[in-house]
Amino acid sequence: MMDYIKDTWRELRRMNLRQMMVQGLQLGLIVTSALMIWKSLMLVTGSESPVVVVLSGSMEPGFYRGDILFLNMGKKPIRTGEVVVFNLDGREIPIVHRVIKVHERRNGTHIDILTKGDNNYGDDRALYNEGQEWLHQHHIMGRAVGFLPKVGMVTIMMNDYPFLKYALIGVLGILVLTNKEG
């Protein structure tokens, strides 16, 4: 491992300014491409976050911690039984739970939604903000339309151990910068 680091360092020091600029541009293109893909997914799915990771065991046995969910907002109204991802005002981390009740107003412009984790005893009113009894459409980020089991454990590990995130970013950056193709 130490030899690899030394070789990489030597390789970086051998590069002239033009080579460094080309490699930096390639790194920038990779980052820009990833952002474009993410924004495109947002447009296609109608969801502000088209992919989320299940962070707790509250939806077991349907979804387990580390499962990646694919979201789509769609035009149809939310219905009882659907798994939705919602975000509460003032909180950063979205929650993945099942809709257990939906109340629609007669004019159809407003709906009240109540959720519950499949593995939880009671509904989510205890999770909602103080004085909040229902979710509304603006809380819903999307409904689950597919999943990949356990693939999101990498994300959970990087959040639990931030040094892993920085190490991975550093290694990927060095690999792109020392790439001889192009």
From TrEMBL:
Cellular compartments annotated: Endoplasmic reticulum membrane
Biological process according to GO: signal peptide processing
Membrane topology label: Single-pass type II membrane protein
Residue spans crossing the bilayer: 20-38
One GO molecular-function entry: signal peptidase activity
Job of this protein: Catalytic component of the signal peptidase complex (SPC) which catalyzes the cleavage of N-terminal signal sequences from nascent proteins as they are translocated into the lumen of the endoplasmic reticulum. Specifically cleaves N-terminal signal peptides that contain a hydrophobic alpha-helix (h-region) shorter than 18-20 amino acids.
Protein name: Signal peptidase complex catalytic subunit SEC11
Organism: Volvox carteri f. nagariensis
